[in-house]
Design goal:
188 residues; single chain; mainly beta; 10-stranded antiparallel β-barrel; binds protoporphyrin IX containing FE
């Protein structure tokens, strides 16, 4: 792994830093329907260098930690970590994440807007249990009782503002539920 300053983080470069926002809205499953949870959060993106796989694939990687708190009681109710990775040769963006429900995702996608025209870079990634390439790993309990079937994440970032929306499709309580999260954050 190298952490030299010459590393090209491509569309991930603009993520690096600390972001905070208090316009979050979570829609989560409940046995009798759904709950809506307004939230605030901090996401810290750290440049960690690049890795070489099989002496041919080079990925520039940015680590992140996301801490999300309910507005109603200030309790942390979502804690997520992972990496965003950029394969410059193939133009592929990858997003790995882990949450302490024993669920992990490796999503793949592309940068759909490089920020050249309007200064906003857009990254879109997805994964699915039936997807050949980009997968979801979950514990036996979660596979049986709260199975994540699909994950989609869109993040749009400019020099000082970051917005995202993500949809996690969960099979739970005998139905398919679109568990959604969105927020707008400012660079700190
Ligand atoms: C800002 C991001 C997120 C927030 C605030 C959030 C919040 C929540 C909340 C409040 C619940 C309901 C828990 C309960 O009823 O006790 C829930 C359920 C769940 N979440 Fe998330 N979540 C987020 C992102 C994710 C992501 C990225 C995944 C997976 C890729 C995920 C997977 C799940 C699953 C599988 C459940 C069902 C478990 C259950 O309701 O018992 N969530 N989430």
């Amino acid at each position: 792994m190298s952490d030299s300053v010459e590393i090209d983080y491509g569309p991930l470069a603009v993520l690096i830093g600390v972001w905070a926002g208090n316009k979050g809205l979570d829609v989560a499953p409940e046995p009798d329907g759904e709950e809506n949870n307004p939230y605030y959060e901090t996401i810290t993106f750290t440049a960690i260098g690049d890795v070489t796989n099989a002496e041919s694939q080079v990925l520039a990687a940015v680590h992140y930690r996301q801490i999300v708190q309910r507005k109603s009681n200030d309790k942390v109710f979502h804690d997520e970590t992972g990496y965003w990775m950029w394969d410059a040769k193939e133009g592929i963006v990858m997003h790995s994440l882990t949450i302490p429900r024993a669920v992990s995702v490796i999503a793949g996608g592309v940068c759909t807007d490089s920020g050249n025209a309007d200064g906003i870079t857009v990254l879109e990634v997805s994964a699915g249990v039936d997807d050949e390439n980009w997968k979801i790993i979950q514990s036996p309990f979660m596979q049986k009782n709260a199975k994540t079937k699909e994950f989609r994440h869109r993040i749009a970032v400019g020099s000082d503002i970051l917005t995202y929306s993500e949809t996690t499709t969960v099979e739970i309580y005998g139905k398919l539920f679109e568990h959604t999260d969105q927020n707008e954050l400012l660079r700190q």
